[in-house]
Write a structure and sequence with these properties.
Length: 399
């Protein structure tokens, strides 16, 4: 159990924040954090100078750096948001804690399992507040789902179905973004972006579209499945999976990407439970959602007519009794209709925990468990075979 002693702030005390990584996702978070009361954005760091000017349009008084270490040297920064590309999360996570900063680290917590092990150990050894950017953990319906499970309404759960669907116009692959004309060596700290990967000349396309390549990304599994698997793990209080199986490929658009755009994941958990996750970038009709299938009832969780890409949040949760085992039970809906998990809710929880020195809703532990599940699924895909937890933990990833 980590203690959170010193520096207990009042609800109105100012929290001074820095941010590492202000690309598209970082700017989304920046626009949210500046709306919270008594927050002062002090500085940002990004390897691409174009992002500095973009960030200053949101927070005009910030100082900008192209090296995150210079930001961490700023003494009056209390807390840091890490929204950099996935392959740099571990360095920014560890360096922020070493500098004595409270930390919000975007999902997935790390690029690899060895990194996840080191970051979890660092968080457990630290007295800093660590929140992982798993926004569904701040969902107002999560408490309902947990209550329905723990009170026995669902019965024995043997299967969970999850899915996430998107689509793009023909010829335009998901995540592919144009490369600005100023994305040149003069404006990019390329060595900092590579973060120990093999040296080579600046590749502007890979800098802008890093999500498409294994060297920097975990693809759709670490971008999207991680939210759903973390929510399921929290709802059912699941340990790490025992085995992972994954099929799929680059089927939607043959655009040079390495990570798959069509995926079917199966995770085997202890105590006779299987969790499946399916995703395609070729059809968005069914949006995203989860079904927890129990002997006594079903929990259905989703976003009506929405997906995670379009900014809509019409979250719902419903319980359907199984007549054969609960013939007299009523069907239920969530106690907070229209409630949703959003960036602002999750950031508000983090800031409140910084002031009160208490554990946030998505601590490093759920970041670790969800990261390992995702990395097991990706390893199974890349090996084209079933992967056990033991095998995954002993695997040494290559760039």
């Amino acid at each position: 159990m980590v203690a959170y002693p010193r520096n207990i702030l009042g609800a109105n005390d100012r929290v001074r924040v820095g941010m590492i990584g202000v690309g598209n996702r970082g700017q989304d978070l920046l626009a949210q954090i500046v709306t919270l009361p008594n927050i002062e954005m002090v500085a940002i760091a990004d390897v691409y100078r174009r992002r500095h000017e973009e960030a200053k349009k949101i927070a005009p008084n910030i100082t900008a750096f192209d090296d995150h270490r210079r930001l961490l040297d700023v003494k009056d920064i209390d807390a840091v948001i890490v929204a950099s590309p996935l392959h740099t999360h571990a360095r920014h996570f560890f360096d922020s804690l070493s500098a004595g900063k409270d930390l919000y680290c975007e999902k997935t917590m790390t690029w690899s399992i060895p990194e996840a092990e080191r970051c979890l150990a660092a968080a457990q050894a630290s007295d800093r507040i660590v929140q992982i950017g798993l926004q569904w953990q701040s969902s107002r319906v999560l408490a309902d789902a947990r209550n329905w499970v723990t009170t026995g309404l669902v019965g024995k759960v043997t299967q969970v179905e999850c899915w996430m669907s998107r689509n793009t116009p023909h010829g335009k692959g998901q995540w592919v973004r144009p490369v600005p004309s100023d994305c040149t060596a003069e404006h990019v700290n390329w060595a900092a972006f590579l973060d120990g990967r093999p040296e080579r000349p600046l590749d502007p396309y890979r800098l802008i579209n890093w999500r498409l390549f294994w060297e920097f990304s975990g693809g759709n599994i670490t971008e999207n499945m991680v939210h759903q698997i973390a929510w399921i793990m929290s709802t059912l209080d699941l340990p790490l999976p025992m085995f992972a199986y994954t099929s799929g490929g680059v089927f939607s658009e043959k655009d040079g990407r390495e990570v798959p755009d069509t995926i079917a994941v199966t995770l085997d958990f202890p105590n006779d439970l299987v969790v499946t996750w399916q995703s395609t970038f070729s059809n968005r009709h069914y949006g995203l959602g989860d079904r927890i299938l129990g002997s006594d009832g079903t929990i259905e969780h989703g976003w009506a007519g929405s997906d995670m890409a379009n900014g809509e949040h019409r979250e719902y949760i419903r319980y359907y009794a199984e007549p054969v085992n609960r013939p007299h039970s009523e069907n239920l809906t969530d106690s907070s209709p229209g409630g949703h998990a959003g960036d602002r809710d999750h950031l508000t929880d983090w800031v409140g925990c910084i002031r009160a020195r208490k554990a946030p809703k998505a601590p490093a532990e759920i970041g670790y468990r969800s990261a390992l599940a995702c990395h097991m699924a990706n390893l199974a895909y890349r090996r084209k075979e079933r992967v056990s937890l033991k095998e995954a933990k002993s695997f040494v990833p290559e760039f």
